[in-house]
Amino acid sequence: MAARKLNLKQKYGHFTRGLDWEPSYQSKDDIFPFAKYEGIKVHDWDAWEDPFKLTMDAYWKFQAEKERKLYAVIDSMAQNNGQLGITDARYLNAVKLFIQGVTPLEYQAHRHFAHLARHLPGAGLRVAAQMQSIDELRHCQTQIHTISHYNKFFDGIHDFTHMHDRLWYLSVPKSFFDDATTAGPFEFLTAISFAFEYVLTNLLFVPFMSGAAYNGDMATVTFGFSAQSDESRHMTLGLEAVRFLLEQDEANVPIVQGWIDKWFWRGYRLLTLVAMMMDYMLPKKVMSWAEAWETYYEQAGGALFADLARYGIREPKYADVAKAEKGHITHQAWTIFYNYTHAAAVHTWDVDDQHLAWLREKYPETFAQYYEQRYLNWRDQANQGKRFYNNGLPQLCQVCQVPMAFTEVDDPTTISFRVSEFGGDKYHTCSDGCKDIFDHEPEKYSQAWLPVHQIFQGNCGGATVPEVLDWYHINQGADNMDYAGSPEEAQWEKWMEGRRPAAPMAAAAE
Amino acid sequence: MTQPVSITLQNSQDGFAIAEAIMADNPGAERRSMPAMTKIDRPGRLEIKAASVSERLGRDWDPQEIHLSVISLSGSVDEDDDYFAVYWR
């Protein structure tokens, strides 16, 4: 008689628990040396319930199918001058931010999930971490491969890994992930799988991909969707991992709550860059940052934390601050980038009248009152040939590393500025959220590699801006400065010229 | 109050069929269209029945094929040979 076919749950059980074994000549503490030092207590690893049940045969089958779909689009882009399909060359700055800031994080995630796949004591979690490690490598590779098409025609993309390690605004995502990978395995899971992937990742990927779709960037939509389907698995891993830790021992609850508070705030500050991209870099806009925050944090996060309340978990500390700031942070971030575009590998530009009207409509309580006049003044200066660039170096927050330009929650005309003392030195942070994080682990954050400090200490190629930009590998006059007058603008206009109808004969003769 | 669960699908041929199956099988589900994607929300639980999707596609659809169409979800996941569900415990 033929063997009975196993159902999905049985197959997955054999694949994970069935292939695991009890060690006989080494102690578990020696095999998993990182499992206990964070204070997390797990009594029964078998209580872990796998959310998605992908066996290897299914995993390879579906991943191969995703790759086939993506490479069909990459080929099509290459064969059909796909770069001409985007709404405007300004749009490409969103893609530049993505490859400079996000793609290297995919590689970091690949490395660290491989570490977890070795070091988590539970077989089910190890298998999920191993698959995620392979996924993250795929994301990194497919993003590089897809965006390489734009690198043939646009600036600022040519040396993104080098820039990721050195540029001031890219130290924001880099230090975020370095912070996570230097934490223990359970903090990393809470930080990346739960706080970032589950709670906040929709705010990164969905607006990026929806924005790309709306702006004719078929390539980014396709790699984004290809990655995002894996992301659904990763998000669910984060949710179930946190739930598992909370169910295993009551003593885990305050530890996990502390990590949720910390990593919510770290992730939220990191998303400032995405928020600015949404409100300022998309020629055709999908939704405002404030609207995205309402849908993906206030609504979805509200449901999540209501569900976790049974374990004694509350909403992240300072979620109310993030809510109160939603009408401000994107304008403040754009201001930073406009000020320092000469030192960045993205362009900024005059916000035109149509865009100003959109901002007034989306931010009725803040934009006209606090930000619009600033942009009009800059426009006047630029029209007089004196486009404003800030030649001072900004103070950076010791924790999130964003230049200190955020304002007090109850007063948008005062810079928010906090000071801590540690080991006889003063350390500055941008908010109560970042100050709490510093004060909890000052030994860690006092060692932060702050780009501005490093320039002043003489570690960044020299004492002048051009020397530092060389050290960044910024191709000066192409990668940096205002979009107006850039080689990219000239190239784009030339392409578009070919699309405009020729002037009528009679008019041309006059 | 039952908290909403949510699933976001690609606007692809399979994605459309899955979205239609969800709307037919889950009374009270709300559907919202965005560029390139469709988001469906419902209080408590959303279930995708393999038979329903198969009927719309005219071929056997395996719930694990959800991996080719899903963009995001909110809630816990339960899957087996004949369904894929998102729910709050």
UniProtKB/TrEMBL annotation, chain B:
The keyword Oxidoreductase applies. SUPFAM superfamilies: Monooxygenase (hydroxylase) regulatory protein. The lineage of its organism: Bacteria, Pseudomonadati, Pseudomonadota, Alphaproteobacteria, Sphingomonadales. Belongs to the TmoD/XamoD family. Keywords: Monooxygenase, Oxidoreductase. It comes from the Bacteria. The keyword Zinc does not apply. InterPro entries: MOase_MmoB_DmpM (IPR003454), mOase_MmoB_DmpM_sf (IPR036889). This is Monooxygenase. GO terms for molecular function: monooxygenase activity.
